[in-house]
Amino acid sequence: MSSAAEQEAVRKTDPGTTTGTAGAVAEAVAAVAPGPRPPAVWPGAPMPLGARFRTGPDGVAGTNFALWAGGAEAVELCLFEEDGTETRLPLTELTHEVWHGFVPGVRPGRRYGYRVHGRWDPWTGARWNPAKLLLDPYARAVDGEFTLPAEVYGHVRDWPDQRFADTVRDERDSAPYVPKGVVVHDDDDWADDRRPKTPWADSVIYELHVKGFTQRHPGIPEELRGTYAGLAHPAAIGHLKHLGVTAVELLPVHQFAHEDHLLRRGLRNYWGYNSIGYFAPHAGYSASGTTGEQVGEFKRMVRALHDAGIEVILDVVYNHTAEAGELGPMLSLRGIDNRGYYRLQADARRYADYTGCGNTLHVVQPNVLRLITDSLRYWVTEMGVDGFRFDLAAALARSMHDVDMLSPFLAVIAQDPVLRRVKLIAEPWDVGNGGYQVGAFPPLWTEWNDHYRDAVRDFWRGALPDVRDLGYRLTGSSDLYAWGGRRPYASVNFVTAHDGFTLRDLVSYQEKHNEANGEENRDGTSDNRAWNCGAEGETDDADVNALRRRQLRNLLTTLLLSTGVPMLVAGDEMGRTQGGNNNAYCQDNEIGWVDWSLLEQPEWRELAALTARVLALRHRHPVLRRRAFFSGRPQAPDGLRDLAWFTGGGTEMTEADWYAPAATVGLYLSGRDIPGRDARGEQVTDDSFLAVLHAGHEPADFLLPGPPWAQAYELLLDTAREDQAEPPGTVHRGGERLTVPERSVLLLRVRE
C-alpha cells in the first residue's frame, strides 16, 4: 500500500484524475461536439439488460439499451456507422443503478459500445475512464478482434515509474482499436426443438474444440472448416455418430480475447479460456459473418447436433475475464464498475486472484451473479445448449473468501427452474487456498474426477502402491460421491483432457515438450504420470510402437468400461499427438488441430474402431452404466453379489489383498443384480461380465471363477490384439486357468 504522499504525487502528475460532481460530469457529457443532430433518446426501460431491438412507443422500431453501472456518474451510449463514425448519446435515465434509454431507428446489425464516467482513484478501486470504449457485458454479438495496443489500457502503460503505472489514467481514445457490440434480433423459438435429453447414466462426453476438430477435416468444405457451420456438417457429425458419443463438450465459445504476452510472441489464445463476452458466440468461429450472423450459425449447429441425438455442453469461464490484473487492458467490466465486478484485496489497487489469470469475478455481488445466471439461461433458452462445464468452479463457490457449498452461486443454481434441469459439470478446484473440492459439490452437480485420471494412469504404468484406489475409481468412486443422494454418474471419468498430454503422448513422452509456447518449457504441469514405453517421443522401434498402441487400447477400454460418465478428448480415438506439448493453449496450428489423415493409417483406424465397438457394448448393457452404486451384496434372494473382485489366482480379494501391490485384478459385474427398475417398472436385468486388467510386463495365469459365478465365459475383447474387427468369441469354462497376455484387458461375458 503506497503512502498518502505517494498517492497525492501521482494524482498531481495525472491529468485524468476526476474529482468533480456527478452534475459536472453529466454537463460535460451533454456538451457534445458540433455536427449533425444526434438521434433522440427516449427513456426506455431498465430491463432486460443489454441491447434489445423491439417496437417502442407509437409502434416505432428501435433498440432499448440498458447497462448496470452501479457507481458511475454518467454513461454514454456510442453508436458506430460502417465507416467508424461515432455518435455519442448520453443515457440520462437511471433506475436501480441501471442506465437506460430507447433509441428509435437503431436496428439489428448496428455496432455500439459504452463510455462510463466516474472517479479515477485506483487506491480505492475506482477506475472509471470515459476515454475507453467498453463492450456491453450483455452484447449478443461482437464485431472485431482485440489486439491490445497501448490505447486500450485504462492506465498509462509506459509510465516511467512502473510501480505506479496502473494509477495514472490514459486519456487516449480506444474506440478505433476495440471490437464493438452488435444489436441482434432473433426471435427464433426453441419450443419445437427436440433436445436429446440423454440421461446422465447413458451419457458419453466428447471434448472438442470447434476449430481444432474441423480445421483439417477433408470431408468439410474449406470455407466451413474451423467454424460452427463446419461442426454442423454431416462429415463432422458422422464421425461423432459412428463413435457413439452422446454429447460434445465445446471448449469456450464465449467471445474471448488474446493475452498481450501471446500477441507479442506471435501467438494467440487457442483454447479460449479468456472470456470477455458472456452472451456472444466467439466471432472467430463464424463462417457467415460477425454482425449478428454468428448467432444464427451457432443455433443451426446446435440443431444439427440435436437432430443426430447429440447434446451440446459448453465449457464456460465465469471465474475471471480477459481484463487480467491491475496492469491489464480496460475492455468492459473494469471500466463499468471495477469494484462492483471484481474481487479486490485490502489494497484495492490489487485484485484477488483465485484463478491464476489476474482477476476473479466477485460472484457474491448481486449484479455479478445476475450477469452469470442471465448468461446461462440465455444459452439454454435461446441458444439451445444442454449443459455447462464450469472452469475452476471452486472460484465461483467462494463466499467472501473460502469455498462454501452454500454460497450464493450454488444456491441460485439449485433453485433456478431453467438451470437446475440442465447438465452441470464442475471443475472442482481453483488455485486459491482451500480450492481443491473434488467430491464436495452438492447434488445436481457432476464433477471432473482427477482421482480417476491419476489412478488409471498409475495402474497402467505400474506405479500404484496398491489397488484400493483403482477399485473405487472403476466402480463410480463411491468414496467421493455416495452421499446426499448423488449417483455414480456424479463422476466424470477421464484419462486425458484438453489440458495435458493427448492419450498418444501419454504413452510416448516421459516429459513435457512445450518449447513452441515460447516460455522455455516452464509452462504446463510436470506431474504427468506418463510412461513413454522405452523411448522419448517418436521412434522407428516397432516393438515400442506396438506396446504404445496396446497401452492406448488398455486406457481407452478401461475408461469406457468404468462406472460413471466417460469423457473422451477429440482425436484420442485415432492417435492424435501434440508432439509432447502438454499445454497447447496457444497453438492454433497443426499442433492443436485434429489430424484426420491418421484414419488413413490402419493402426489408427483400428483404434477408432475399437473405441466405437466398446462404446456400442456400453450402450447395449445397463450393467456397464449403472444408476446406483454397488453394494457388494445380492439384490435378489437368489442373486449373486452385484460386484466381486478376484485375484489372479481366482480367489476373491481379501482385505489384505487391497493393501498389497497387484498387477492383475478381476472385476465381476452381475447383470442379475442391478438395482432399480425401467420406465415400465420392470426389474432391470442384463448379462454378467468379468473384466480382467493385467498391467504386468509378462503374461499371467488367471483362474476363471467357477459356479456360482459362471459355468462358462465368452471372450468378447482382448486388447492384446491389434485387429478388433471381429470379437474373439472363444468360450472358456469356469475354473479354467486362462493365460492373460502382458499389459492387456480381457472382457468376458458370462454364459449359462
Characterize the structure shown.
There is one protein chain. The strands form 7 sheets. This protein has an 8-stranded parallel β-barrel. The protein has 752 residues and is α/β, with parallel strands linked by helices. The N and C termini lie far apart (77 Å). It has 18 helices and 29 strands.
Summarize the structure.
The protein is an alpha/beta fold and 752 residues long.
Q: Could you outline the blueprint of secondary structure elements for this entry?
A:
Layout: H1 4-13, H2 22-30, E1 50-55, E2 61-68, E3 74-80, E4 86-91, E5 93-95, E6 98-104, E7 111-117, E8 120-121, E9 126-127, E10 142-143, E11 180-182, E12 205-208, H3 210-214, H4 228-231, H5 234-243, E13 247-250, E14 254-256, H6 260-264, E15 275-281, H7 293-307, E16 311-316, H8 333-341, H9 366-381, E17 387-390, H10 393-396, H11 408-415, E18 423-426, E19 445-449, H12 450-460, H13 468-474, H14 478-481, E20 491-493, H15 503-506, H16 542-561, E21 565-569, H17 602-620, E22 643-646, H18 655-658, E23 664-669, E24 689-694, E25 700-703, E26 712-718, E27 731-733, E28 737-740, E29 744-751
Parallel strand pairs: 12-13, 12-21, 13-16, 16-17, 17-18, 18-19, 19-20, 20-21
Antiparallel strand pairs: 1-2, 2-6, 3-4, 3-7, 5-6, 7-11, 8-9, 10-11, 14-15, 22-23, 23-24, 24-29, 25-28, 26-27, 26-29
Helix pairs in contact: 12-13, 16-17
Family: Belongs to the glycosyl hydrolase 13 family.
Protein name: Glycogen debranching protein GlgX
Organism: Streptomyces drozdowiczii
